[in-house]
Design goal:
Oligomer: single chain
Number of domains: 2
Number of helices: 14
Radius of gyration: 40 Å
CATH topology of the largest domain: Rhopdopsin 7-helix transmembrane proteins
Order of helices and strands: HHHHHHHHHHEHHEEHEEHEE
Shape: elongated
Strand content: 5-15%
Number of strands: 7
CATH class of the largest domain: Mainly Alpha
Amino acid sequence: MNAFELLIIIYHSINSFMATDGGELLKKFVELFLFTVVTYMIASEYGRSKERHLKYLMIGFAALAIDKLIMSLVFSSIVFGDVRLFILNPFLPILDLFLEIFALILLTNSFIYPIFADKVDALKRKITRETFIVIIIVLIIEAFWLVRVTHEPTAAFRSELSYLFLELLKIMVLYSPIFYILSNLKKMGKYGPHIMIAFIVAMITPATNVINVVFFGGASNNLRVFAHPFLFISVLLFTRVTYLKLVDKATIKRELAETKEKYVREHELGKMKDEFVSTVSHELRTPITSMKLYLALLRQKKFGALKKKQQDAVSIVEKETNRLSKLIADILNLSRLEAKKTKLKLENVNIYKLVKNNLYYNLAEQKGVEIENNISKKFIATVDPEKFKQVFINLFSNAVNYARRKISISVKEGVNHWDFIVEDDGPGIEKEKLEKLFDKFYRVGDYLTKDKKGTGLGLAIVKNIVELHNGEVWAESKKGTRFIVRLPK
């Protein structure tokens, strides 16, 4: 006898054993163990999260565990207590199938919960409706079966039309989630196909039982043995999906906890930074004020006449002092904006006049840049005039630095918003660098060359002021650069 023949003999021996009451007992006991473990696993998670779909899942697996417990006790009595199976015929087969179908209703609906996440009441009504229909059908079949076994106590339920009808009902229950998943794959996420495969595998068992009844009168032991493992395999697949979901959830919880811890730490560091910046900036103002005072005295020749080189040196020191003073002012301003300590004083403002009456126009004229103001003279908007003026000044001074011949200022009205646009005809900015423009101290290579004036904080201040107005700001660049401030009406 070779190894192959030995495997064939072992296979047939296992099949023969699985077709006996002892084989049924082994199968029911293994399923009982598996369902109990899965129920415990889900119940533990439900105890922590109280999520409704976990409750349905827990009840579904618990119903399967109870069913397998009852059947294990029944087959234990048959195998070890010499109890005749026909004594239990009036109620046991239908109770077994009812518990399976009820459990499948809960399981199928709990696994398609993501589809009904925003319609939980609809899902609850669906479960109630399906359960009610199954109870009515089972009661009707039970009534017919009681009549049948009254006339023939030894009748085999597996060969009856009642059994065939309940197996078909099981197939319908298992097909329902497959239809929903195929129609809503995106909502089901990455586990949708895995759940669908598990339901398809589960359908093989009732489908095989239907074939057995229709073509063999329920008497084919080979088909009975063939049908045995598929429900078990599908439960393993469901268990795998459930386990992976719980692992994902635990991972997300851990990441959220880590993120929260990082956020708290960053918040504390940010607070310390703001306090440090505020303190240092205030402390720097005093010596800078003294420096400006003495520079003014030097210019007024209070300490004697200055030679040409000395005057040039004083001019450089004065220029750098003014730049340092502006940097400190910008840092303090930005720090207050980021700390949400600045409050708006909203007014109805004529945007044309606010833009027109601006001393920064002189900078453009000195550079030979033409200013094109396309704003309607009657355009009124609700803004904080001082804050919005700062937005315009920062955008305009930036445009002046890089414009070649022209700067255009305009307003475009939308349904629920209006856009304030400042556009220059400068060299433009590379697309991948546009989003970084509003970062603190960010400079864009050739576009923001080192010889250009500015603190590197102007656009960051613009962004914070615009967001304070519940608006948004962005830049576009093709020929030149366009800054768009969008504010709600």
